[in-house]
Design brief:
Elements: E1 2-19, E2 25-40, H1 43-56, E3 65-75, E4 105-109, E5 113-116
Antiparallel strand pairs: 1-2, 1-3, 2-4, 2-5
């Protein structure tokens, strides 16, 4: 099993409206970037897990997306190449000080950084 850190960009077919508490439109969100930590047999399997993760995301009714893999890095299984913020302790599937899980899957998700059309 190998450990990967993938940086992705997701373009939304239908922009999501960001509105203020008063109901005023503030922006139309066209997509987002995100980083995911993945355990998989190989790079193709890691990409498949990320595709499934994006498809399962609640991005609005009948939303279609375009997924772009910006960067794919294989990392040491003990997390030695990760910065402090990227280490597995920031995940819900691992405990502080532990290496990524042994089983395949997405074990780390950064927040989504949305961007607007403008």
């Amino acid at each position: 099993m190998r450990t990967f850190l993938l940086s992705i960009e997701v373009h939304l077919e239908k922009p999501m409206e960001l509105v203020s508490e008063e109901g005023m439109e503030k922006a139309k969100l066209a997509g987002f970037v995100q980083e995911l930590g993945v355990r998989a047999e190989d790079e193709a399997a890691a990409k498949a897990l990320v595709r499934a993760e994006v498809e399962a995301a609640d991005l609005g009714p009948a939303q279609k997306t375009e997924l772009i893999f910006i960067e794919i890095d294989e990392i040491e299984s003990d997390g030695a190449q990760l910065s402090e913020a990227e280490r597995p302790e920031a995940t819900s599937r691992s405990r502080p000080g532990e290496a990524p899980p042994v089983e395949p899957g997405v074990y780390r998700r950064s927040g989504r950084s949305f961007y607007s059309e403008e």
